[in-house]
Amino acid sequence: MEDDTPLVLTAVDQVPFILAVCEGPELRVLTLSAATRSVLAGREFRGRPIREVLNDLAGQQFVDAYHDVYRTGEPINGREWRAHITAPDGSVHEMFANFTITPWMVDGVRRGVIGVGFDVTDMVRQRQAAAEQTARLKRRYDQTREVITALQRELLPAGLPVLPGAQVAASYLLAEADTAAGGDWFDAVAQRDGRVALIVGDVVGHGVTASGVMGQLRAVLQDRLEEGAGIVEALTAADRFATRLPAAHATTVVLVALDPVSGELAYCTAGHPAPLLVSRSGETRYLPPTGGAPLGTGGAFPVRSDRLDEGELLLLFSDGILERPGRDHTSSAADLAHVAADSAAGRALHDPVSTPAERVCSQTVELLVRAAGHTDDITMLAVQRVPVVPDLALELPAEPAELRDARHRLGDWLGRVGATGEDVFALQHAIGELLANAVEHAGTTDGATVKLNATLNPAGSVLVSVTDDGRWQEPRRQANRGRGLALAAQLVAELKVDHSEAGTVARVAKPLSRPARLLDLSAADRQPPQPDDRVEFRIVEQTGDDEARVRVEGPLDVTTAALARQELLRRSRGGTVRMTVDLSGVTHLSSAGVSALHHVAGQHATQDAPLVLHAEPGTPAQVILALVALLPSLPSLPSLPSLPSR
Question: In this structure, what DSSP letter does residue 552 have?
Fold first, then answer.
């Protein structure tokens, strides 16, 4: 019979895939297909061991795979293995291959190994390009959504007023759809006559245009209401605006004017769902719609009256909470009433920190949308009538030891009126400075006292006065003195000091607000715990017996500043050795404490020995030191200007 081997080899040579036949323990190459030779251009291969032919792939597991198959007799399959192959000119090319390496058996005896593969580089490159394009599109989508979220934050109120007799809360959840920017909005406006105007509105459509229209309508209503306009007058002004702006056509609004003291309320539903009332016993009822027309449609704005008793809660909302997938309007309204009542009573998710109004705004949304989802923005605005907290009136001996208790009592009162931890922090520090000045000033008289009076006015501002009967002392420029008034002024909205022969009165004003929640149901939204000013003052060594690496804990105020200064200088040998002070554990840092740190820093600067201060972000020390420009290192910063001291 004629030998067909050359003919068979010619056929094998023409197959359009990678083929390598290797023989013997050294796996010497018998043949390579033309496709393989094109990949391994310019290489001598016939009769050479595969390890020499593929020497540039020795560390890429391909050669090891051939030998493993010969040794074990088990085939190896590879999918999209990446290879770097050196060309005759020295350049390196990357390719991807799918392959199978199998034993070559002849009459039951293992003779060698056969490798078959396909060059899938183009396919892999196309998939990588598609993945990169998808990733780019996702990044663009995420960036767009971040812009939308930022836009919503800017257009919606930064905070809600803290009012006597009323706790207000709000939340906003963006739609799950790609057109997430919506036209929903809420607002709470403290009016001149002591009432609070509560608004929820919904501009037709989505997108940045709807958000822009929403911002303009909110500004119109806010301006009119702050000027003292009633419901009809404010809505009429918004209606005129909507008539001139096509994108505002058919905007729906519900506007409630509530007297927190008497509980009397008036409201108008301009094409918008009526508010839900939750009683103290958990019973619910929807207020009757007033029949008002959407903005820009030429209708009227009739007003109805009702009453909110103490402990009762009123919930305003947009229709996104009712129009959930798979739920009709009637059943959605019943679900909303049931879940809102449970959230207000604390029977839903455990959250002892939030107010009932805050629980209703956050938990109701979470519980209702987690099963069916939501296709529209959801806005919630709740108000609950609560007892009015009496004003704070303190009279204390003009002694430094009384200051800490006064700060505690002020903080407790602020907590009862509903102030956030940030506002409590600012007012405790500011009033602490004024009290320290008053004690120092009035302490020159035997039996002298200092008076503190605080009230929350109907506009949502805390007004505090600190009074002493001491004799006014002309300001003197002294080193490390006079920072108290400067610090207090940075922490409040207004500061005024009046003095006469009868004594001195320092007055401060600071609006209180609680943040509305732009909800992210995948993450918890909780305020961090606030520092406890009742921690005893102490200085402890951080590592071993190194006296120059310490942590300060507790209040660093007028009663502890001198001790802190002495102890820090003792440990640093009068400022002659390098010292590191961690102030993260300081619960209250007054101007007296700041002055003590300046004094220690001055000693270190004189001795040319570094003093390093550290305070974790958000701690009282970090906040105060940032205000007075004392971080990160005292010696390298210019000293603060001396300010008048009482």
Answer: E
pLDDT surpassing 70 at residue 453: yes
Share of the chain above pLDDT 90, in %: 50
Q: How far, in Å, are 437, 468, 472 from residue 441 at the CA level?
A: 6, 8, 7
C-alpha to C-alpha distance for 161 and 153, rounded to whole angstroms? 17
What φ, ψ does residue 462 adopt, rounded to 5°? -85, 125
Cβ pair 240, 224 in contact under 8 A: no
Q: Quick check: 377 and 148 in contact, CB under 8 A?
A: no
Other Cβ atoms less than 10 A from the Cβ of 404: the count is 21
| CA gap 367, 350 in Å, rounded | 13
Question: Which residues contact residue 410 at a Cβ distance below 8 angstroms, ignoring those fewer than 6 apart?
Answer: 392, 394, 427, 428, 431, 452, 454, 464
Contact 28, 47 (CB under 8 A): yes
DSSP per-residue codes, 419-475: --HHHHHHHHHHHHHHHHHHHHHHTTSTT-EEEEEEEE-TTSEEEEEEEE-SPP---
Per the CB < 8 A criterion, the answer to whether 383 and 258 are in contact is yes
**How far lies 192's CA from each of 164, 230, 300, 401, 599, in Å?**
14, 11, 25, 41, 48
Q: At what angle do helices 620-627 and 421-442 cross, to 10 degrees?
A: 70
Residue type, 610: P
Torsion 8-13-16-18 (CA) sign: positive
Lowest-pLDDT choice from 129-138, 147-156, 409-418, 543-552:
147-156
Look up residue 634 and give its two tokens: 């005292």
Q: pLDDT, tens digit, for every residue of 195-231?
A: 999 999 999 877 678 878 888 999 999 999 999 999 9
417 CB-near residues (< 8 Å, 6+ apart): 162, 164, 389, 456, 462, 512
CB atoms within 10 A of CB 385: 24
Alpha carbons 383 and 163: distance in angstroms, whole number: 10
**Peptide bond preceding 397 in cis form (omega within 30 of 0):** no
H helix or E strand, kind and range, residue 315:
strand 313-317
Domains of the chain, first to last: 5-119 (3.30.450.20), 156-385 (3.60.40.10), 392-514 (3.30.565.10), 531-627 (3.30.750.24)
pLDDT, mean of residues 395-422: 92
Q: How many whole angstroms separate alpha carbon 432 and alpha carbon 202? A: 45
pLDDT in tens, 486-534: 788 888 999 998 887 778 899 999 999 998 876 655 444 444 444 555 6
Q: Would you state the structure tokens that stand for residue 159, as one six-digit string?
A: 């905070």
Residues in CB range of 1: below 8 A, 6 or more apart: none
Q: What is the pLDDT of residues 336-354, one digit of tens each?
A: 999 999 999 999 888 888 8
